[in-house]
């Protein structure tokens, strides 16, 4: 089994069970490999978390890249629709990265992986929107959805899309 396949299985395990509950022995079983193979690619539970997050990030970023039609409001709203679909299908309990940071608040490796990923999301939102000046505000709305989704569901997406439209309108009329 490849490192990527193991990371995929780890992502699924952490998404279902969280970070505190599964032991390394359980992660081995859920990964479908021997302990030796698991440790060959991921020598600690923290590196397993990073591997799972990296795999998940690549999946989400490839979805965001599909929103790169003509930059602007329509593409940005499409990106938020993509996030809505992602949350329904992959993250109904919230952002796995945020959950990883909460579970391992002092782990530099996990913090660095999440920080790198989140900065990439900001860059993607800048490209999708065609508005570098709005990228951080769009990111805050994006992250607001991931935090609020477990409670508000699709209402979080709807509220964020309303705010995105208002932000585009307000900044366009000021120029």
From TrEMBL:
<keyword id="KW-0804">Transcription</keyword>
<keyword id="KW-0238">DNA-binding</keyword>
<dbReference type="Pfam" id="PF00440">
    <property type="entry name" value="TetR_N"/>
</dbReference>
<feature type="DNA-binding region" description="H-T-H motif">
    <location>
        <begin position="23"/>
        <end position="42"/>
    </location>
</feature>
<keyword id="KW-0805">Transcription regulation</keyword>
<dbReference type="InterPro" id="IPR001647">
    <property type="entry name" value="HTH_TetR"/>
</dbReference>
<feature type="domain" description="HTH tetR-type">
    <location>
        <begin position="1"/>
        <end position="60"/>
    </location>
</feature>
<dbReference type="InterPro" id="IPR023772">
    <property type="entry name" value="DNA-bd_HTH_TetR-type_CS"/>
</dbReference>
<dbReference type="InterPro" id="IPR009057">
    <property type="entry name" value="Homeodomain-like_sf"/>
</dbReference>
<protein>
    <submittedName>
        <fullName>TetR/AcrR family transcriptional regulator</fullName>
    </submittedName>
</protein>
């Amino acid at each position: 089994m490849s490192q990527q396949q193991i990371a995929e299985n780890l992502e699924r395990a952490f998404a279902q069970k969280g970070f505190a509950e599964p032991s390394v022995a359980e992660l081995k079983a859920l990964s479908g490999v021997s302990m030796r193979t698991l440790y060959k690619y991921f020598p600690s539970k923290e590196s397993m978390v990073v591997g799972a997050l990296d795999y998940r990030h690549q999946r989400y970023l490839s979805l965001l890249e599909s929103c790169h039609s003509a930059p602007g409001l329509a593409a940005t709203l499409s990106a938020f629709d993509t996030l809505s679909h992602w949350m329904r299908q992959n993250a109904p309990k919230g952002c796995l990265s945020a959950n990883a940071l909460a579970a391992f608040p002092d782990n530099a490796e996990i913090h660095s992986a999440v920080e790198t990923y989140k900065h990439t999301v900001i860059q993607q939102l800048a490209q999708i929107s065609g508005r570098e000046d709005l990228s951080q505000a769009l990111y805050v709305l994006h992250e607001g959805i991931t935090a609020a989704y477990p409670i508000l569901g699709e209402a979080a997406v709807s509220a964020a899309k309303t705010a995105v439209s208002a932000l585009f309108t307000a900044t366009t009329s000021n120029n």
